[in-house]
Amino acid sequence: MEKPKTFYITTPIYYPNARPHLGHAYTSTIADVVARCARLRGAKTHFLTGTDEHGAKIVRTAHAEGKEPQAFVDEMAEHFKRLFEELGISYDQFIRTSDQSVHWPGSQALWQKLVQAGDIYKAPYEGLYCVGHEAFLTEKELGADGKCPDHGVAPEHIKEENYFFRLSKYTSDIKRRIETGELVILPEERRNEILALLHSGLADISFSRPRANLSWGIPVPGDADQTMYVWCDALSNYITAIGYGRDEKQFKQFWPADYHVIGKDILRFHAAIWPAMLISAGLALPKCIMVHGLIMSGGRKMSKTLGNVVDPTELIEQYGADAVRYYLCRHVSPFSDGDMTKEGFRDVYNGELANGIGNQVSRVMKMAEEHLGAPVSLTEDDSAFEPAVMEFIERFELNRAMDLIFEHVAKGDLYVQEREPYKKIRSTEPADSAQAKADIEKLVRHVFKLAVHLEPFMPDTAKEIQDAVRNNKKPKNLFPRLAAKRDRN
Ligand code: MSP
Q1: How many domains is the chain partitioned into structurally?
Q2: Do the domain assignments include residue 419?
Q3: Is 27 close to ligand 1, i.e. is its CB under 6 Å away?
Q4: pTM for this structure?
């Protein structure tokens, strides 16, 4: 496998209008696994996440809570940071779009590039605005009841002066770049969806809003009466974070991004509007947009507006961060929607983690602690990462990577069953007990190898297992949560 020098991966920037839910945890976790894997491969990795803090919805929510928007987002951004810390998200940078020194200069520089390319013009705008989406919707996108199907609210009818971006000019260029593979869209189904959309053509889009109607945002350069519309403000984070308009050297080092990881609800913005902006500004396109499915709850997209959210912090408190990460990676299919239930979570925890990984590691390390006089001396081979697992991870097929890891676990269980080292070690035949000792040593290496592969997915568990092997000690109960809960009942 070719060893890239740098690796730049991003999550979307999250709306901090409410506390983070499991859907946000999902996007961040899968991006984190791929980022950790890139670091294991030795790439200089930059993993970006952050919050998308401007827009009408933030202002409304802040005011409803009796707060100024800045104070409100300062507080909310902390909830996201805290969740990511609890969840072990190894981001290198957390960008906030209200940050006037990191984000604004690059965002305004990009706007000016689009102006220079002749792609920004002023015109009156009339449309149906959904505050939930922070976007204008077409009649076609509304339900039969005239309401936004995702948010269940009627859009507002708005008429105002806007700057527009000449998106229509770039439709065929973007299409060509996706077709040639210059811009990869994963999975195939999403690629086809966006190609069909491009094929039908795209209209120019509203790119600003009058300051009188929206003051909480980045001022349009050269026109203090207009505020940048939220998508231009937000999408530019991917380049401003790494120095666009601020630190050209760092920008050149990391751009183009290797991956933008997004949910399918924001595909159009990332695979049509963003590439058009980049082409207009003379910049390279990201190499790949990875589009995941949505976590559903009761058959609908999990969202604050619908009031059906699962709080990831609660799950982390109950089961531990690694269990949550594991569930998201193995049991939510990366490319299609999946329903998540707390009961399902509990079964997985018990069956696959406590009885699967936890049981094997403690059995093997118990034998090792009792019967091997010293820690097994590890070789380079014991730390080698299986290319097949890495390939799945790099394609975001995390569930399939996990399946391979569990085949490894199953092999270990079978080995113990067949060789019965726990019996033979007590044999009075020296040949038998020597063989059993060799088998235990082999199993310790096997468990270490398991930890190596678990590392991107379950970093704390991986470390505990590796420490146990290095100290030749049975680890303390790796997945104790449910057992403890049962004791209480
Ligand atoms: N702020 C925009 C993104 C701007 S990026 C330049 C936004 N924010 S969001 O907070 O609504 O969503 C952020 C990410 O979380 C998106 O990738 C979205 O798909 C993901 N999820 C939000 N709800 C989700 C689920 N229920 N399930 C899985 N992911 C979901 O959109």
Answers
A1: 1
A2: yes
A3: yes
A4: 0.93
